Structures are given as structure tokens and as C-alpha cells.
Amino acid sequence: RLRIEPMRLRNPWSLLQSVRHFSIAVETYAEDGPRVSHLGIGRLQVEHATSATASTLIWRESGRWTSGPLAGLSFRNTTSWRQVPGRPELALSHLRRGAQAPTFLVTLVPGPSGAWVAREPHACGPDLYYAVLEWGARNLCLSWDVKSPSDPYRLRLEARPPKS
User: How far apart are CA 69 and CA 11, in angstroms?
Assistant: First the structure.
């Protein structure tokens, strides 16, 4: 599990640009507490674009599930992080339908504990996705707590730069 160090950076943007490796875990809930049901590892390709009005990072994730029912299967995902200069917020979208048709997920803003939290949860049908972004000097963690009437779970993506 990722050890989040005290947050020295007020804004995670530079760390979001530098990460290249990640692990991912899916936790389901049982009567005796959360249980990890899936684990995976992967790599990130990060593309950066800047315009007069915003900076955008595109994360191209690729990896393989290492345990659980999907062990051995590969996966891919593409997300867009957008920052408007002067605003303490990050907009996160997924690009499953391509860069021309992003699906907005959440706007992350500074929370009371130092982590950045979703201004509002992302709604997908009856499910609500609550995002939290935490980081330390060389790592970050994006967690999604999914409140669902049929299948609640937590997804944790822990990312880090390449070892120097």
C-alpha cells in the first residue's frame, strides 16, 4: 500500500506530469471489512499540452491484472486532466470515446485534509463515484469510492515516477 507523505506540494500538477508506473487495486466490501478482489500493474504515457486558457495532461494507461478473477488479462484506459491557470482545481475526464468526445468525471478541489476531493460525485446510472487525490513527494493516489445499490467498491490507482 502506498505511503502518502506529508503534502509539500500545494498542487499535484507537476507530479501528475511525472508519473510513469502504477498499481491498481479493487476492494469490495464484506461484513468483516474491505477485501482486495483485483490487483494490477501498469505503465503510463503522459502527454502535455498548453494553451492560453488551460493545460491538459493525457494519461494513456496500459497494464495487466495480476490477481483476482481477471488475472492475466490486459487493460487500457485514457484520461484527461485539465488545469486552468489561477484556479485551484483539476477537471478529470475519460476518453474512451476519443479526445473529441470526452466524458467529464469530476472536478477535484482542495479538501480540508490537504487531499483534493471531488466537488460533486460522478453519477453513472444509480452509482455515485467519489474521487480523492492524495500525494506525497514522489507518489500519488487516486481513489474512487463507488456507492452502488448492487456492487459498492473502491478502486485505488497508486502512481509514481520512474526510479532515478
Answer: 36
